[in-house]
Amino acid sequence: MATLSKSDRLVTDNPPSDSESDDSRDDEGWKDVEEDEEETPEVISLLDDRVFPDVISMLAHCKEKHNFDFLAVRQKLQLDFHGCVKLVNFNFFCVHLTPLRQKPMLSANIPSVRQRVHEGLPVSENISLANIDDDAYLKPVLDDDAVIIGLFDLPELSVPGAIQPGQDGDNAALVNDLLKRNTELQEQLASVMLQHENYRAAVSKTLDARWGETGADDNAKIADDAAGKGKAKDGADEKEDESKYYWESYAGVDIHETMLKDTVRTDAYRDFIYNNKHLFAGKTVLDIGCGTGMYYFILRLPSLASPPITNNFKGILSMFCARAGAARVIAVDASDIILKARENIYRAGLVDTITTLHGKMEEVTLPVDQVDIIVSEWMGYCLLFEAMLPSVLYARDKYLAPGGLMVPSHTNMWVAPVSDPVWVSENGETFWADVYGFDMSAMAKGIYDEVRVLHWPGDKVCGTSSAFKMLDLYTTSAADLSFTAPYVSKLSQDVDALDGFLIWFDTFFSPTAPSAGQNKELDKHGVPDDAIATEWILDSHGKRDQDRVAFTTGPFGGAETHWKQGLLLCDPHLGEKKEGEKSKEDDGNATETKTQQKKKDEEVRGEITFSVAEDNARALVIKATWDAGKTQQSWALR
Amino acid sequence: MLKDEVRTRSYMNAIVQNKHLFKDKVVLDVGCGTAILSMFAVKAGAKHVIGVDMSTIIFKAKEIVKVNRMEDKITLIQGKMEEIELPFPKVDIIISEWMGYFLLYESMLDTVLYARDKYLEKDGLIFPDKATIFVCGIEDGDYKDEKIGCKCHKPVFNANTCSQHLVWDNVYGFDYSPLKETALSEPLVDTVEVKAAVTDPASVITLDLYTCTTADLAFSIPFSLKCRRDDFVHALVAWFDIDFTACHKPIRFSTGPHTKYTHWKQTVFYIKEVLTVQQDEEITCNLVVKPNEKNRRDLDIEIDYKLETQDPNRQANGSCTYKMC
């Protein structure tokens, strides 16, 4: 039987991975430089922590020690393979997991089973089909693949009154069909397990690599990031190289926070790609900067601030595309990270579909003249800070076929006024003016000059949100990324002072590429200039439209993302400084610079300007004007 | 540091209330940061204070010192304690806020000890001079629910420690659950409610800063936890107390679950199994802490636990390893 031989191979090929298994990889043109782990295939007992070389002996142990006869239960409940998997996982849930790891819906039966195990009572009589009738038990619980794979080795289930093929003429065809289907399903399962096994190997190897070779440098960096203690630490070497700096800047993000918040992003890409498989089937896809999208995976891993491991989960967007049926995916990334992505792609068995190119988008030579789809996760803080968008636009102009698809297709930037006197008093200059009797105002220097990236509570936004810049990625040019755009917001409450402005963006994935001559208005998936992510994804009846995917990085209700929001804190002395200048103006209001109070329903309007800093091409300068253009302030993001 | 009221106020009281100790003394502030401790020392009458810090925060500190008109009393030096030269051959007092999470994680204690050996006068004083690690057993119960909101300081990948991380089981269709087994557990830095404590706290180790050496920062110490009530134990939680014994009226602050919040919070070590304990039973434990051999900044931690009871079904005996990195 095909499945058996496959699972056999899994077991025999993967033993304490010595050089032999490496060689087999080399045969396929893969040079594995890191493989050095020692891993013994282990079958952990269903009912305690003992470990066995194979499933049969483990089950014998369970029968002898705990009076739990797996085979008898299987026979009694007439469990098929999936049933057995559930039974195995049910036991793991019951026995191995602390309550913390149980989902509430699964936990109902558990205390009694665990109790019985602890009391040395047989548990088998407790288990009914109802107990394990939950697909959740199909999900692996522990490091239990060995057990589940071993299930293939169990003797055939004897089916009482089973109809044998050929026994009855009418049934024979049906039975043959069923048996054939069964074999197919088992093959599929084995193949999935093989993939899982590959991932598992990759993951454990990654960890070994991490613990085996943590460079002092990386750790120094983590240390510097940690806690912001501002203490004497062995400083990480300053990296001159720009791309290295780019990755380091990612490492500075509070990694755990990021972990919890990044699902929004990757979910959006995944949902769009998987919900629109028809768009990807047979197509050629370009994945630009394949590194960053994988950040999601990185964050599922422990302590991954350091690039060596961070890099090890690159290529997810490419892999999504390949799974969605793309004929070919070309992944381009300038950093060495792509070498790691290559490994992941190999591990996922997608090496035939995904081609990785190491180099700058502007410099690499693609193996094709045109691509049908460009996928990229290029967005930065305040959308455009250190964003890869120029590379994406370059690739679009050079490679995207007419009628080709941009993923995502649109982004929209938003601004809203904020007011939170408490926050300002605890974080602004007043806090630093008197710290235990000392004047520490020096610490407050720059707080009005720099964009602060943080999560701002939605209820501290004091006016309506204003969409100020829609980027249609089919038409945007690099020149559009420096711009001045008007905004207007109506205050939703009286405020003593405008404390600042909050900036965020929405990202849209439209499944329809604009075709030449088509009226944009008629496009069912068109993205209007004031589109709001959370509303755009709904159909005309207010229901979620599965074709549409969009997410917001804004402060209202949506899950938090690692982009957070950008806060532009208004300098309360702005009026004072400008007083002389302003009094020259005729407008009477301008002299009342001290009074910053504003009433509900008052409009705040002005312009937002995005530009590149003169002294630092990497830095972004955001300028805002308000009070009808009479007040203006600039902030840098660097 | 400045926003941690407990910490800053304790240091302030220890220094400013002991003018008799600081008057006309030369003081070294190890890892001075914004120089607030240095300024406290000047306020307490120090003849001169030397603040040392690796970080560029020292430039802010210089501005601050100047604004507060103490630049003639405070010398700020950027650099590694091991590499710089002090303007005084010896100092009378060392002040430092060196403690890290779990006291020792990324702490600057070794730098303080180096400064002590090299610069501190015989009979000189150290503020603070004592640090004690405590451990108790906690029941998890509602705690895990709190974790779903996840205030964890650090990435936690062992699903045991945070229900948020059940994700391991299914990451976009790829099962990463093996990580749960492969990975060493990482302790969780978070606040624990005192009512979660099932056992009395045990004092595990006290570091006397006058006498301890860097070798003492790796240790293996047995202790036992006496259960206060019938309950379950899901985890051990550790914290530390800090003493300024040189003060006229000794000053102490604690980072435990029973007292005011500090930024150190507590450190939670989940154990593999759930212990079912009865009142007055004892869990005997052993705590091993040592810097990681490959990277001295990381801490390797091992906790052995053993519950011996009349009831064989409740007996438990295990060992867990953790890594803070």
UniProtKB/TrEMBL annotation, chain A:
Keyword Transmembrane: no
Location of the region described as Disordered in the Swiss-Prot/TrEMBL record: 1-39, 577-605
Gene3D superfamilies: Hnrnp arginine n-methyltransferase1, Vaccinia Virus protein VP39
Segments forming domain Protein arginine N-methyltransferase: 411-512
MF-aspect GO terms: histone methyltransferase activity; protein-arginine omega-N asymmetric methyltransferase activity
Biased composition (Basic and acidic residues): 1-11, 577-587
Stretches assigned to coiled coil: 175-202
Catalysis performed (reactions): L-arginyl-[protein] + 2 S-adenosyl-L-methionine = N(omega),N(omega)-dimethyl-L-arginyl-[protein] + 2 S-adenosyl-L-homocysteine + 2 H(+); L-arginyl-[protein] + S-adenosyl-L-methionine = N(omega)-methyl-L-arginyl-[protein] + S-adenosyl-L-homocysteine + H(+)
Keywords: Coiled coil, Methyltransferase, S-adenosyl-L-methionine, Transferase
CDD domains (UniProt xref): AdoMet_MTases
GO biological process: methylation
CC annotations in GO: nucleus
Superkingdom of the source species: Eukaryota
Record InterPro entries: Arg_MeTrfase (IPR025799), PRMT_dom (IPR055135), SAM-dependent_MTases_sf (IPR029063), Znf_C2H2_sf (IPR036236)
This protein's name: Protein arginine N-methyltransferase domain-containing protein
TrEMBL record, chain B:
Top-level taxon of origin: Eukaryota
Phosphoprotein in keyword set: no
InterPro entries named among the record's database cross-references: Arg_MeTrfase (IPR025799), PRMT_dom (IPR055135), SAM-dependent_MTases_sf (IPR029063)
Alphabetically ordered keywords of this record: Methyltransferase, S-adenosyl-L-methionine, Transferase
GO-annotated cellular components: nucleus
Catalytic activity: L-arginyl-[protein] + S-adenosyl-L-methionine = N(omega)-methyl-L-arginyl-[protein] + S-adenosyl-L-homocysteine + H(+)
Alphabetical list of PROSITE patterns matching this protein: SAM_MT_PRMT
PANTHER family to which the protein is assigned, alphabetical: PROTEIN ARGININE N-METHYLTRANSFERASE, PROTEIN ARGININE N-METHYLTRANSFERASE 3
Designated name of the protein: type I protein arginine methyltransferase
Provenance organism: Xylaria bambusicola
